[in-house]
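Feature request, filed as a ticket because there's no other form

It would be nice if the structure record came with a short human-readable summary line next to the tokens. Right now we just get the raw output. Example of a typical job, pasted below so the devs can see what we mean:
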Amino acid sequence: MAAAPTFETLLYAVEDGIATITLNRPDKLNAFTARMAQELIAAFDATDADDAVGAVIVTGAGRGFCAGADLSAGAATFDYEARGEAAREEVKVDGVNRDSGGRVTLRIFDSLKPVIAAVNGPAVGIGVTMQLAMDIRIASENARFGFVFARRGIAPEACSSWFLPRLVGISQALEWCYSGRVFPAAEAKEGGLVRSIHAPDDLLPAARAIAREIIDNTAPVSIAITRQMMWRGLTASHPMEAHRADSRAIQARGAALDAREGVTSFLEKRQPAYPNKVSSDLPDIWPYWETPKFK
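Raw output as currently delivered:
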């Protein structure tokens, strides 16, 4: 097992194959900062590199998940030039500063492990858009959500204009972003944003139960491939692209030790013990989808 990294704005722990990343600025309702963005990217680098991690849970410390961007810079919060060099990204896209929330969601999009959001309280702005690249979102009864960008005079960020309509449909996405209002967990579930709602004390146990179902019964390399096939497939222009990826995946996996173990354990009516590792045995099944990876 890899040594657990330490962070200023996050708590990071791995137990029984589950990595829990906890946004940890509870006195600020876990408001998002440039440091938190850097540390979230590093945390997902760590989960990908650690074969002991089979699933990731992201939650918040205290009574909030993430209250959005830290507004302590006042009127200059979203103005890179006014805030000076410290607010600017060293790497730019098309000659402009990269949105730090987008860097986080792109890193989560590239995750090789399934990601579960356990939304324990208010999740506003980047607090909700960072969840969109996560695979399963469950919410506490105390959770609140808000795509508040138009109410702050800015625009949707963190790649949410790509993720949100794909998750909930264009009409629902536009209504939430047009109004900018904060809405309860029940509305988030009705609109398809979250899977289920739980009593506060039941939230993390429910997230862990979902993670356990995955970890205890499936091959990690198969999960990594499945995750990327599904997400990347959202932009495929024709099902032939999926057929190509499927064919490569079946050929690579069918010859792997995991496939032998999967069939044998089923026939022997026992729990599987998959030998292949994500760190060393992940096949490249989509070379024709090569795109620059922004870290």
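Something like this underneath would help us a lot:
Residues 291-295 have pLDDT under 50 and may be disordered.
The radius of gyration is 20 Å.
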